[in-house]
Amino acid sequence: MSDTPVSASFDDLMSEVAGLIVEALNLDVQPHEVQPDDPLYGDGLGLDSIDMLEIALVISKRFGFQLRSDNENNEQIFSSLRALCTHIASQRTK
Predict the structure, then answer these.
(1) Position 61 pLDDT exceeds 50
(2) Which of 21, 22, 54, 77 has the fewest CB atoms within 10 Å of its CB?
(3) CA–CA separation, 59 vs 18, rounded Å?
(4) Which position has the higher pLDDT, 49 or 93?
């Protein structure tokens, strides 16, 4: 897989991002119920492309970098909570 950071701060990031997703989309789950490796799109949380745009907007505002719709890696970036947080962590270190 990729170089996924394993630390308390990464766990904190996953909790924060799960909370942002649940709040932004008004989901009927608690942030701690969002499993790190479950798909965000389709199965898993059952989100659609409009939901992904909303998540991208919230993440961009919160973390200060833009998630672009034309990024060729979006399918991987948004594949799971863990993948999204790994991408966020990599952008924060730049």
Answers:
(1) yes
(2) 54
(3) 11
(4) 49
The reply to whether 26 falls in a domain is yes
Residue 22 pLDDT more than 60?
yes
Tell me the one-letter amino acid at 70: D
The structural domain count of the chain equals: 1
Range of the domain at 35: 15-92
57-71 burial, b at 16+ Cβ within 10 Å, e below that, comes to ebbeeebeeebeeee
DSSP state of 44: T
The answer to whether residue 9 is domain-embedded is no
Q: Rounded distance, CA 64 to CA 45, Å?
A: 25
The answer to the question of residue 2 being in a domain is: no
Phi, psi of 69 (to 5 degrees): -70, -20
